[in-house]
Amino acid sequence: MKVLADPDRVLGEGLARLRERFDIPAGFPPEVTVEAERAAKQVVDGHSDWTDRPFVTLDPASSTDLDQAFCIEESGNDLLLHYALADIGWFAPEGSALVAEAWRRGVTLYLPDGRARLYPAVLSEDAASLLPGGPRPSVVVSVRCSPDGTVALEGAERAIIHSRAKLAYETTEVADVPHLEAFAARMTRAERDRGAARVDPPEQELERDGESRYRLSFRVHRASEEANATLSLAANIAIAQALHAAGTGMFREMPAPDERAVARLRQAARGLGLNWHDAMPLGEFERTIDPRTVAGAAFQLAVRRVGTGASYVPFRAGHTPWHAALAAIYTHATAPMRRLGDRYILDTVLALVEGGPVPEPALFERLARTVNAADAREGAIERAVLDLAEAVLLAGREGEVFRALVTERDDKGARVQLRDIPVLARVDTGSVAAGEALMVRLVGADPVRGEVRFERVR
Questions:
Q1: Can you tell me the distance from the alpha carbon of 51 to that of 219, in angstroms, rounded to the nearest whole number?
Q2: Residue 424 — pLDDT band, cuts 50, 70, 90?
Q3: Of the ranges 143-157, 182-196, 223-237, 292-306, which one carries the lowest mean pLDDT score?
Q4: Domain locations in the chain?
Q5: pLDDT at site 262
Q6: What is the DSSP secondary-structure string of 275-325?
Q7: DSSP label at 168?
Q8: Paired strand residues for 312
């Protein structure tokens, strides 16, 4: 989830209502807290010793829930990524209250005023987090990356690591981290060769624009952030390939936009003043978009809306679970403290490598249902937060007329994108088509309920 920053806390009352509406937990039941505190004091055993490897972490400076640490080494012409992932499964064994509560939650929820964690902070931000300064239990997944960016799972084992440094996106240059720049370049080149089209809109922040008005500013992803993302991408693709070949696991599936959806996107691009040549595929065009602009961000949002979205699917014989945006078989395994399913994917990888029994298919059927429901809830919360932010942007501007573009039409009316500020809204209109330009008047904006109302002027 993309967290919308709210430094002035103007969303406070609205977020309080939202937490109540979605029943977002404020803490953990006492028995879960007791188990977590006991687990945090356990002496680690049954892990290999990898403390001599120069692992580091790379995250936002303020992060303390560190799921991943890495080191990269040369192996002939290949690069070998050793990706250490927090071993939350060791701290939270099956049958525990910790696991039962994680199944109820499904995912860590991030909101502007705080998070609702999947596991208590004594684990996720302390004992299980891959912080520097001491030995930490992990699952190390080793991934081989060839010069053309092809990846393959090399091995996996439980290991104790010692992170040498907590690097921050804000202060780290990619070239300063051994082999990271070369690894990222290989992965990026491979994505382009596959025709992948990752949509990763910029993070947004509410900031004061004058005495009483606010605006949404865009924070572009830093080079270190983009490079770091390729490490998770490589691990998730390599793990997915290994699971699928073994006939087990759970995957992230996303269909490609159909011809009708692409036609709507072309209309939206024209309306936003973006130059999309007829012969250019969607994936190639997306790489030309500048997400720092209102038009670029609006188009990225449009891309996310036209598809059916990604979902989790268990392995099924004869079916290839394809992630169209990545042009690859893909899973989620690299954020085990934040997503319920990742720990079970790692358990399965360990079983495959060690020759042990893999989980029964029924587990992944149940897991897919649970995490898809959590995913849908997270998406609804994210949309509700954005609704609050848009209402804050527009509060006090009732009666103003705005330029708008119709992005889609359904039986509820038209969905429009304001041309000059990043706001999506609905308008009751007559016959309009996607891509058509309108003028709309703001009728009302409620920053507590997150509701805005527009009417068509012409």
A1: 36
A2: confident
A3: 292-306
A4: 12-254+309-394, 256-307+398-458
A5: 86
A6: ---TTS-HHHHHTT--TTSHHHHHHHHHHHHHS---EEEE--TT---EETT
A7: E
A8: 252
Whole-angstrom distance, CA of residue 65 vs CA of residue 129: 5
Q: For residue range 123-148, what is the model confidence (pLDDT) as tens digits?
A: 999 999 999 988 999 999 999 999 99
**Six-digit token string for 91:** 């701290």
Beta strands in 376-429 (DSSP E): 401-410, 413-418, 424-427
In the numeric block, which tokens belong to residue 52? Answer: 């001599």
E strand segments, 146-212? 151-161, 166-168, 203-208
CA dist 375 and 49 (Å) reads 36
First to last CA, the chain: 36
The one-character DSSP state at 453 is E
Evaluate whether 147 touches 72 at the Cβ level (below 8 Å): no
Tokens of 18: 């939202």
Distance from CA of residue 163 to its chain's centroid? 24
Please give the distance of CA 243 from its chain centroid, rounded to a whole number. 22
Cα–Cα distance measured from residue 385 to residue 379, given in angstroms and rounded to the nearest whole number:
10
CATH for 256-307+398-458, among 3.30.365.10, 3.40.50.300, 2.40.50.140, 3.10.310.10?
2.40.50.140
Both structure tokens of 109 = 């929820």
The whole-angstrom separation of Cα 182 and Cα 106 is 35
SS3 254: strand
> Residue for token digits 């912080």?
131
Tracing tokens 């997150």 back to the chain, one arrives at 450
Encode pLDDT of 66-77 as tens digits.
Answer: 999 999 999 999
Contact 241, 331 (CB under 8 A): no
Amino acid (one-letter) located at 59: D
